[in-house]
């Protein structure tokens, strides 16, 4: 289902979902290579958006969870495609996910629950990102999510070209991606894009925030080298926690992300500060580092990252 680029993406997503919420691979009649997108970062890429937990003490009565947001948030109309006519969570067979968490590798068609928690309790940016690229592309899509909480780019994800010790999670990231690609067997594929959503831990440590820009530029170069794709579309999600009024090292990281996005060829910086929601209207009122667990925030981040990727794909 190829999207017309002269129409608003969210309008087409809603309209298409009402007709065919899940395009099955066998219906496409194509053997085109699978389009692979790597989604990397730390805990906010893992996914902290609460789906339906609503305990009055521990989850603020459900305010800001996904179920609540689909009924009461400003983005409610944009979220209609997440459930079918019978009120069940939509499962897209044309978009699949592979994500290794502490419980092992979880793979399957796009829907809720592909986070570090297991089950179906949370979402991350992958949910709406998958819908956006899935409706844009005719080919089958595979999202390989590789993320860990509390990890920095300066140390844990440190790319080879930054010098010093290569970050252990840079190595693990590549191992997980290659394992997911190997699991495709004889199915042909092309690595179509890379998304980076990280930054919190690089706010801390002497000199660490100041080197973020160069580390991010080198990360892009090394990832492209690894996958032999000099112009691999590279999307950078802003460290938008707390909204536009942040200060100190958070602003340093944000500025570094934006500048790096302008210096990396075929890359795009995606602003996310507008997606922050107040803790009073969110399920995890004490978790500002996790967008207060607000599902609308994670939905909108995924939406913006997906549209950013589509913009780069259009250029190609």
Notable features of this structure?
9 helices; 316 residues; 7-stranded mixed sheet; 17% strand; two-stranded antiparallel ribbon; alpha/beta; 33% helix; Rossmann fold
Topology diagram in text:
Elements: H1 9-19, H2 25-28, E1 34-41, H3 43-46, E2 49-50, H4 66-72, E3 92-101, E4 104-110, E5 122-123, H5 126-136, E6 141-147, H6 168-182, E7 189-197, H7 212-226, E8 234-237, H8 249-263, E9 267-270, H9 295-315
Parallel strand pairs: 1-6, 1-7, 3-6, 7-8, 8-9
Antiparallel strand pairs: 2-5, 3-4
Characterization of the model:
This protein has 316 residues and is α/β, with parallel strands linked by helices. The chain has a domain of 215 residues: Rossmann fold (3-Layer(aba) Sandwich), CATH 3.40.50. The strands form two sheets. The chain has a seven-stranded mixed sheet with strand order 4-3-6-1-7-8-9, with helices on both faces. It has a two-stranded antiparallel sheet with strand order 2-5. The radius of gyration is 18 Å and the shape is globular. The two termini are 19 Å apart.
Summarize it.
With 316 residues, this protein is α/β, with parallel strands linked by helices.
Alpha-beta content class: alpha/beta
The H/E string reads HHEHEHEEEHEHEHEHEH
Radius of gyration: 18 Å
Shape designation: globular
